[in-house]
Amino acid sequence: MPTKITLTEDDVPRQWYNLAADLPSPMNPPLGPDGKPVTPDQLAPVFPMNIIEQEVSQERWIDIPRGVLDMLYKWRPSPLHRATGLEKALGTPAKIFYKNEGVSPAGSHKPNTAVAQAWYNKEFGIKKITTETGAGQWGSALSYACSQLGLECKVYMVRISFDQKPFRKTMMAVWGGKCVASPSMETQAGRDILAKTPDTPGSLGIAISEAVEEAVMDTTGKTRYALGSVLNHVMLHQTIIGLEAKKQLDKFGIKKPDIVIGCAGGGSNFAGLAFPFTYDKINGADIEIIPAEPASCPTLTKAPFMYDFGDVAKMTPLLPMHSLGHHFIPAPIHAGGLRYHGMAPLVSHAVEEGLMTPVAINQLECYEAGLLFARTEGLIVAPETCHAVAATIRKAREAKEEGKEKVIIFNLSGHGIMDLNSYDRFMAGDLKDNELSQEEINASLEEIKDHPKAFVKKTGKW
Amino acid sequence: MPTKITLTEDDVPRQWYNLAADLPSPMNPPLGPDGKPVTPDQLAPVFPMNIIEQEVSQERWIDIPRGVLDMLYKWRPSPLHRATGLEKALGTPAKIFYKNEGVSPAGSHKPNTAVAQAWYNKEFGIKKITTETGAGQWGSALSYACSQLGLECKVYMVRISFDQKPFRKTMMAVWGGKCVASPSMETQAGRDILAKTPDTPGSLGIAISEAVEEAVMDTTGKTRYALGSVLNHVMLHQTIIGLEAKKQLDKFGIKKPDIVIGCAGGGSNFAGLAFPFTYDKINGADIEIIPAEPASCPTLTKAPFMYDFGDVAKMTPLLPMHSLGHHFIPAPIHAGGLRYHGMAPLVSHAVEEGLMTPVAINQLECYEAGLLFARTEGLIVAPETCHAVAATIRKAREAKEEGKEKVIIFNLSGHGIMDLNSYDRFMAGDLKDNELSQEEINASLEEIKDHPKAFVKKTGKW
User: Fold this and answer.
1) Partner-chain contact A378 B4, CB within 8 Å
2) CA angle B437-B441-B447, nearest 5°?
3) N or C, which terminus of chain A has less Cβ within 10 Å?
4) For each of chain A's 462 residues, which pLDDT tens digit applies?
């Protein structure tokens, strides 16, 4: 039996799976600042209508357009590996599998939705897409996608990352994307913030505000904004990961995994692998589904489920989600992709429904897991992905203690080739844990106490 | 028709192809300092005997051991893409294909031979492998391979690269390899050089001397040395690239390419793609086979074919090859993997036989080609690979002028994710061409005028 299953192009799924169609209770809609549900028309200056339609769709299966499939073929189907080296090192009876999304041109799962969003924008007649990026994964994925379709791409990159991660910036430039440090002088939001705090390191919240502003202020109507996680249509586009994985597990002779794991920041790579298995769980399968988040940003494990804004400047609608408060600034851990105050509404809702059991893991345990994975499986994974590896190792050790032959599958969301300095710091003993305390969470939520009371609902079913 | 052909594990070739069996005239053997052919016993302190047997084998097909196949499965078969985006941008009637070796864990073709060499060493009872590395591709590939088999790995990295490329060093450390700057205080060769020139930036020649010394001085007999290019067994291990590519072209409906291209430094990635097609050419197929080298290190296009040493310290046997002289120090171009004074004897010999038609290309043309490739095909390739892309673009433009539907295939030897700073410098206009002049070549060859006359033969058939 080989330790890897490669599907052919013919095996790439032709439809995405929409979890919204199968949730036991319906999701709450995004709200405007007036507390009323946001209408598609209100979102039209921000997103093209074909994407808005996907965002609100209740259809279970949504066809992947031919043009998107052609672009996905560049690196899909991604391989599914059996981690025999890791299993051996752990001495576990568990069978561990991982889906490698690091093989995409930009090195992570992000291009799965970037090519889809770029394609829909182009179909709608859009010429330019704006976005924000933190560590740079999403900005480079969207630059890549736009380069393939001849669209302009403008990326507002959080200033501290812009200065610290020059190679991500270069990557975007190679693909023709224009990347500026945020806050910038190019938007009113940016100028206002620079006037007050010229030395600010920036934040994802600020960058979102700038990107949205540029899109809606373009009087030609040919510019829209794109988001790389959180929203329903992004989760939808990522489900190709789990749909492929099911076919591949089947070829390994596995009818159903016992445990499905992904790291969770905004939620999209986790959702991509997990949602197709969540469908099985809703239909009676016994599957443990685990989003793994950093202990320094424990959105699902410690933050309340409520309505909150996606950005500091409150330019986004209010979304029903687990949130540490839109002012929250996470500790500067290396897993930049997991440093987000909120969580995808679909993931948040599924957790509320009891379909998923999140865990929070400290930074050092994650790097230790990543190092063991690199030495046993040979792949150097992103700091974000290390959280999924660490959760997997916990479960594989549990299986050993219980003497059970559990089948575990996790999503290898991205490679760590551009994050080697963080491994270097870990091996040198320069990293530490940053577990967020309840006091810090309370203090962060206190900051949104002026938040309309009706919007804040404590954890519990809607 | 998809633009990519992915084979399954079942399609991975089970044998390597040995060009030595089919060359029209036999190769000349490596010579010792006494001018006599080196015997396998003389090489025994440096390489394990099972590798030495491969080095001198005249068998056409050599079985790939099961254990090596299992390791190759991690990332093989590698995909073959049709470059429809590049074709369109060039407006060429040519059909362009590329084999993507950048998908390996270390990011290049190097692991193809690293896992084989590590496996044979382990089979022979070896516990530790020493090697040298310039830019770090080979050192990281061997560290990766050793980590998979539980072998120790010691890498002497040229000091200037050690200082300038910290991430490659970290990559080796993540895989458990021990990397030291060369010259080091750990060998007599290193100490001697440091005593004379404490500030030397080091060189590949010096690093080879140190790595060989550590291997042969180990009194336990459990240490051997490994080389990542140039030698016959390395070319052999890389032929899996071309053998897979032939199957994939066949699935694209292509019976035979018209043109086969690879960049050439030591020669191994080029040989890997080209040798299986060279076999077809020897058997009558009309195929143009092009090694593309940098104009700053024009080994095949401008240097004589002669016997020369592989290293500065003359610790290696004399090899029959195209060489700029073993003292030659190439300009510091970013394509570090192509900065070698010599060339694989098998490639050199095949060029002498008229089977291949090398070209030399300047740095700026290469980066321009790499940038166009990234924007049209979406993959950012290594500076070395840019030479193959540039040669491909030249040929595709020729096909356009001639109005011919030529089929071109080139080897994408590695990704450029760890070389983004060089793209940055190119886009900023900071790079320049460094074409080597005939005067510089003459001056370099003058330095080996004390070289025994019998060993130096001018270009021409033996």
Assistant:
1) no
2) 150
3) N
4) 678 887 877 888 999 999 999 999 999 999 988 889 999 999 999 999 999 999 999 999 999 999 999 999 999 999 999 999 999 999 999 999 999 999 999 999 999 999 999 999 999 999 999 999 988 999 999 999 999 999 999 999 999 889 888 899 999 999 999 999 999 999 999 999 999 999 988 888 889 999 999 999 999 999 999 999 999 999 999 999 999 999 999 999 999 999 999 999 999 999 999 999 999 999 999 999 999 999 999 999 999 999 999 888 788 899 999 999 988 888 888 888 888 899 999 999 999 999 999 999 999 999 999 999 999 999 999 999 999 999 999 999 999 999 999 999 999 999 999 999 999 999 999 999 999 999 999 998 887 876 655 455 544 443
Question: How is residue B34 annotated by DSSP?
Answer: T
- Nearest Cα residue to B383 out of B312, B332, B345: B332
Task: Give contacts of A174 with chain B, Cβ < 8 Å.
Answer: 371, 374-375, 380, 420, 423, 427
Those residues of chain B whose CB sits closer than 8 Å to some CB in chain A are: 2-4, 6-9, 70, 73-74, 77, 81, 85, 103, 105, 107, 144, 147-148, 166-167, 170-171, 173-176, 371, 374-376, 378-380, 417-418, 420-421, 423-424, 427
Inter-chain contact B73–A374, Cβ cutoff 8 Å? no
Q: Of A3, A10, A174, which to mutate for an interface test with B (greatest number of B Cβ within 10 Å)?
A: A174
Token look-up 């080697």 returns A420
Residue A362 makes CB contacts below 8 A (sequence gap 6+) with: A294, A295, A296, A433, A434, A435
Angle between helical axes of A204-217 and A188-196 (0-180°, round to 10): 140
- Cβ contacts of A403 within 8 Å, gap of 6 or more: A93
Q: Are B427 and A174 inside 8 Å of each other by CB?
A: yes
- The model carries a pTM of 0.95
For residue A424, the distance in angstroms to the closest alpha carbon of chain B comes to 6
Option in A107, A173, A371 nearest B427 (CB): A173
Sign of the dihedral through C-alpha B232, B238, B244, B246:
negative
Please determine, for the modelled complex, whether the ipTM score is greater than 0.90.
yes
What structural domains does chain B harbor? 4-9+64-107+232-448 (3.40.50.1100), 32-59+110-225 (3.40.50.1100)
